[in-house]
Amino acid sequence: MCKQAQTAEPWWWGRQSCLQPPLRRLLAGLTLIILLSHLALGQSFATVDVHPSAPGTAERGGFFPGGRFDLRGATMLTLIAMAYGVDTGRILGGPAWLNTSRFDVIAQAPSATPSAEALQAMLQALLADRFQLAAHHDQKDMPVYLLTVAKGGPKLQEAAKPDDPAGCPRVTGDPGLNHRACHNSKITALIKLLPQAAGNYVDHPVVDMTGLTGSYDFQLDWMGKGPYLAAKANPDGPAAVSIFDAIERLGLKLSPGAQPTPVIVVDKVNQKPTADAPGVTRKTPIVPTEFEAAEVRPSRPGDVQNYSHSQNGRLELQGFTLKGLISMAFQVEDNAVTGGPKWLDTDRFDVIAKAAVPARPPAWRGC
After folding, report:
1. How far apart are alpha carbons 334 and 331 in whole angstroms?
2. Residues 234 and 210 in one domain
3. What is the count of structural domains for the chain?
4. Looking at residue 365, what is its pLDDT?
5. Which of 61, 81, 156, 255 has a CB 3.0–4.6 Å from the CB of 70, allowing a cystine?
6. Is residue 77 pLDDT above 60, yes or no?
7. What is the pLDDT of residues 34-70, one digit of tens each?
8. C-alpha span between 34 and 32 (Å, rounded)
């Protein structure tokens, strides 16, 4: 006999009972059937090249235009996260090597314009086929950050131009702080921004509990985690400002908590992938590792930092410091770039470059 637990479950789950474990096993079986149906319906890559990465290979790549998937130096944890569209922190179970062994996976979809959902289904099928991955969906209490309204009430300004595009670009200001100026932004955009822009502080998903539904103009100003800790240890230096302090200035509060969260549970996976089909490397196009043409020049005084990337492979960066360019090239946080001359963080440059093959721009990682 088991006790009934009072937890938040989907409406279709019905009354809490001892039938939940067998029902979940049934759902796990259905997940496998759905995955096999993807294979039967042609939801699989046309060509696939999978092999262990060379020692020292850095993780880079992902989904590219034209139905191409090219990820080098990836752990199985990363591959599962991309296949199922979840954070790595929501992947449970599996062997110890899940986050240590690295693989190169290069694949081409049969269609040049597959949907994002189709590409994820293809990657799921690839992992099941080549690594014999078996996984199922579940729900666990996971750590999160809860965004609530502070005692004094919100201090957000209603959007001055509600018809303008929403966004939270980086802006200039005190060089000891990070700055984001958000315009016409909803709270849903803020909770997505925080783990991206301030990942050293906000290392779990953010859950909106504010009840605020409007569009707002506001600015976030905070120190990276390293400078913040140094400021805390030096009472004679600049005031320490964390991302939590920046949120409080908006009349909001960010605090740790827990919430029932959908997760992926790894039941089984092989460390050694099955062999490639004969001749597959000749069918897999190679992504270029350098630009076809590039121009670099000092920025004009007063130029604002701007970033654009077009589908034809053209990349334009305006008003970037060399430190910012290095962090983008190596996909690390700004405060992870240390050493070098002082001008690394002051002098600004424009970069215009054209890739031989269109490529997805690297993701920015926050401080």
Report:
1. 9
2. yes
3. 3
4. 39
5. 61
6. yes
7. 444 444 345 789 999 999 999 988 888 888 888 889 9
8. 5
Kindly tell me the burial class for residue 166, based on how many C-beta atoms sit within 10 Å of its own C-beta (0-12, 13-18, 19 or more). Answer: middle
3-state helix, strand, coil in the chain (%, to 5): 25, 30, 45
Asked if residue 364 is part of any domain, the answer here is: no
Q: Which residues of 245-274 are buried (b: 16+ CB within 10 A; e: fewer)?
A: ebbeebbbbbeeeebebebbbbeebeeebe
* pLDDT at residue 287 tops 70: no
265 shares its domain with 240: no
Give me the helices (H) in the chain, please.
20-40, 76-84, 116-130, 187-197, 225-232, 243-248, 280-283, 322-330
- Burial pattern 285-317, b for ≥16 Cβ within 10 A else e, equals eeeeeebeeeeeeebeeeeebebebeeebebeb
Helix axes 116-130, 76-84, angle to 10 degrees: 140
266 plus 165 within the same structural domain: no
Q: How far apart are the first and last CA of the chain?
A: 50
Q: Which residues constitute the domain of residue 113?
A: 11-140+261-283
- Model confidence pLDDT, tens digit, residues 117-148: 999 999 999 999 999 999 999 999 999 999 99
pTM of the model: 0.60
- Residue pair 61/72 in contact (Cβ under 8 Å)? The answer is yes
